[in-house]
Amino acid sequence: MKENSTSVKALLPVLFGFFIMGFCDVVGISTSYVKSDFGLSETIAGFLPSMVFLWFLLLAVPAAMFMNWFGRKKTVLASMLVTLVGMIIPFVHYDLYTCLLAFALLGIGNTILQVSLNPLLTNVVKGNVLASSLTAGQVLKAVSSFCGPFIAAFAATMLGNWQYLFPVFALLTLLSMCWLLFVPIPEETSGQLTSSWGATFCLLKDRTILLLFLGIVFVVGVDVGVNTVAPKLLLERCGFDIAEAGIGSSVYFAFRTIGAFVGTFLLARVSGSKYFRVNVLVAIAALVVLFFVSGQYPILVSIALIGFTCSSIFSLLFSMAIQAQPRKANEISGLMVTGIFGGAVIPPLMGYCTDLIGTQVGSLVVILGCLLYLLYCSVGIKTER
């Protein structure tokens, strides 16, 4: 009984770290505010999310190598410190350059956090509980993402400035740091031999790992893409202002939360590959509907369906990869988190296609391409297994 109590005590601060992880998704609604504040084009605004997600490509593997030596818990704490600094900067002084710096620090902190938090969870839970726990963590991440647009809208309308969301996020990050710092968590021995870039990326020679890695790239592309385009569709087709249009992102993350919660239980009972494939098919159908509808409610329903069906895919791909080579969990984590750079590639491509076509249909075409790969990926994983 005492051992179980200790396990729960260690699990809670680790899971709360997933809430902090969700802060990176505030870049979706923040892009709309920053674009309006500084009069940016769609193409230039599309690079704002890149300031967050580019670091997953550049730092994920070095962070995994660093974690092997420094330890998982200490690496998580370091990531939160970087995030805390990033949340303070734009509140102290707000201009385009401090926004870019804040987004960059948010991306750096989030990269290190995602690399280290998932393996740290394996120090607390084992075996079949891991996939369910990872999905539960994604529920908390989705709750955080859901709250972001509401906090921004409340700050803009009630406090007179959307930037007040930054000190709120900073305070929550500080709380998470203190909680994790003072709760003992079983830790792997530090000072392990660190893997090289080459050794880590050699894992891609395994076809299953390659499929899962590219799946991460494209599911994050869908996630960031829908988060970014949802308010823009409401602005373009329904005449909403920016504060009202934030409901699009909130609906998306609300149903991601619900979908992740449902997935926590269903993934313990149904085939992962089948669950993956069915959800992607429904997401494709919902996205196709978005090409043709213009009313507020059809748009929100379609966005909700995409959020619900894509909610568990990231954690499913991640857990499959770790279970494929559990002895290389740190390296697998670094490699998979590198795939989150899809969030840096997809939004600029969406912005370019939108400027090229003249409507948000250009963005939807790019997201559809991501979903079609995920459909292929779901079939490939089934074949591999």
UniProtKB/TrEMBL annotation:
GO terms for molecular function: transmembrane transporter activity. Residues 5-385 form the Major facilitator superfamily (MFS) profile domain. Keywords: Cell membrane, Membrane, Transmembrane, Transmembrane helix. GO terms for cellular component: plasma membrane. SUPFAM superfamilies: MFS general substrate transporter. The chain crosses the membrane at residues 12-34, 46-69, 76-94, 100-118, 139-158, 164-183, 209-230, 250-268, 275-293, 299-320, 332-350, 356-376. It is a multi-pass membrane protein. InterPro entries: MFS (IPR011701), MFS_dom (IPR020846), MFS_trans_sf (IPR036259), MFS_TsgA-like (IPR050375). The keyword Cell cycle does not apply. Gene3D superfamilies: MFS general substrate transporter like domains. It is found in: Cell inner membrane. PANTHER family: L-FUCOSE-PROTON SYMPORTER (PTHR43702), PROTEIN TSGA (PTHR43702:SF3). This is MFS transporter.
